[in-house]
Amino acid sequence: MKNLKYIYFSLGILAFTACNDPEDVNLEPEVMAEALAELNAGSADFSTYVSLGNSLTAGFTDNALFQAGQANSFPNLLSTKFALAGGGSFSQPLMNDNIGGLLAGGSQIEGFNPRLVFGGAGPVDLSDVVGEVAPTTDIVLNNPSGPFNNMGVPGAKSFHLLAPGYGNVANLSAQLANPYFVRMTGATPDARVLELAMAQSPTFFTLWIGNNDVLGYALSGGDGTNPITDQPTFDFAINTLVTTLTSSGAKGVMANIPYVTSIPHFTTVPHDPIDPEENDFAAQVPTLNTVYGALNQVYTALGETERVVVFSDTLDNAVVIKDEALVDISAQITGAFNANPAFPVFVTQLGLPQEAAPLVASLLGTTYGQTRPATENDLLVLPSSKVIGTVNEESFAALSAANLPAAVAGQFSVEGITLPLADKWVLTPEEQDEIKIATDQFNATITSAASAAGLALVDANQLLQDLAQGGVTDGDFTLTANLVTGGGFSLDGVHLTARGYALIANEFMKAIDATYQSNFEASGSLFNIGNFPTNYSPALQ
């Protein structure tokens, strides 16, 4: 495997680790005393501020929710500025530690893991650096008491904010509840997110929701396990949220949905990550090209030349992927091999008896009926970097059960090389088009709802595109969308760093200025993003 874009930054480590620790960020009102003399709220009333949204609202970062990240959530940052213009207190459902991860009755909840940290060569699990860690936030034993001004629920889609029982622990087994929201419902487990927000009679709100309505599909590689929300459901959710939140005269700000192509989770792993100089790959090229050479003859005969695979022993190689948009030619491949009198001899070159020819023909047909080399138009999800070049255990077990020798079973089970990468690891152009179409339609709904209600609007989509297309400069700092080095995105490639959240908070204040005639920017009350860290130390307690 060649070095991926986020790996091996040893020469630049000091630039990242020297950033301020979270405890160095001083948000106390006296720090902004000079701005306080001139700041005014315009027509906005910040006395009771409530934020609704998902992980981006909660302060999720480095693939986890933890106290330091929550302290730097953009709503919490905004609340410190609102306090200078008549705003009241702001409460968050704080985690119990800076480890991250969730327990239920003492047991780790699958998929809710401790945070990632920078391990010297890229993102790694916290335990890889500091040893075994033990999360202490337990949704059964130690939930905090509300009400909470920050109603950001990691993982929530638009319609989840309207769903009864979404915070009821009894609904977890049926996957109808969210552990993070379970921590927030207290004695009213069936209360809706919107209901708990309205119970506080907000005078001002922020609403950034909808990302997960498309992001869930993207994170799963478009494999269908997490479908895009249908347009009528999304429209109903957004319009209901806005209508309800403004029903008593509250003002607020909405933000739209970024394109996934702006997010390093989908742009970091290249389509051609296989370096012939690593892991003796060059020595395997002749054998690989012998196997693919037989397949290439079939592809060529069928006019499917875009499926031809040829590995190089000198150049970086593209991974082989399964593309469900391709016509399935499994039967044609198997039939062509079975009809070829020379195929049994070919099989012996693999160390198998000629009698295994029908089995191998069927195997090749099933495995390569919808495959092709990846191109620069494909997006590989970030976790694929840990999979490419490894042996798929399920494939190995299945081939072994079919009486193939262990060596052969292993040879045909190497992810992205002899075993095409499954749909979940790749966003093909067709899947990207689905996501972009949905994102554009959802953003039109958000823009329309904000406009009709007279709300401010943050174009988060454009901001993150700017991060990805050269960067955004704020004061003395320029943030980009590069993983680890860019400063804008945290180690999971989806969520922002504390500095990134400070940048977002500034954009919200600018939008408030434009709509409600406040003067956060003119009074010098925007955040200096350089005062916020781009990474958290593994030793953070």
Structural features, described:
The chain is α/β, with parallel strands linked by helices and 541 residues long. It has 19 helices and 15 strands. Strand 14 and strand 15 (477-479) form a beta hairpin. Helix 10 (231-245) packs parallel to helix 17. It is elongated. Residues 1-24 and 28-37 have low confidence and may be disordered.
Beta content comes to 5-15%
What strand line-up does the widest sheet have?
6-1-7-8-13
Secondary-structure-derived class? alpha/beta
What share of the residues lie within helices? 25-40%
Shape: elongated
How many helical stretches? 19
Uncertain segments: 1-24, 28-37
Oligomer: single chain
Structural Rg: 26 Å
Terminal Cα separation, in Å? 35 Å
Average residue-wise pLDDT: 93
The main β sheet shows up as: 5 strands, parallel
Q: Report the strand count.
A: 15
Which helices and strands, and how do they pair?
Layout: H1 13-17, H2 33-36, E1 49-53, H3 55-58, H4 67-71, H5 74-82, E2 103-104, E3 107-108, E4 116-118, E5 123-125, H6 126-130, E6 150-152, H7 179-185, H8 193-198, E7 204-208, H9 211-219, H10 231-245, E8 251-255, H11 281-301, E9 320-322, H12 330-339, H13 343-348, H14 357-368, E10 371-373, E11 379-380, H15 393-401, H16 406-411, E12 426-427, H17 429-453, E13 456-458, H18 460-468, E14 472-474, E15 477-479, H19 498-516
Parallel strand pairs: 1-6, 1-7, 7-8, 8-13
Antiparallel strand pairs: 2-3, 4-5, 9-10, 11-12, 14-15
Helix pairs in contact: 5-19, 9-17, 10-17, 12-14
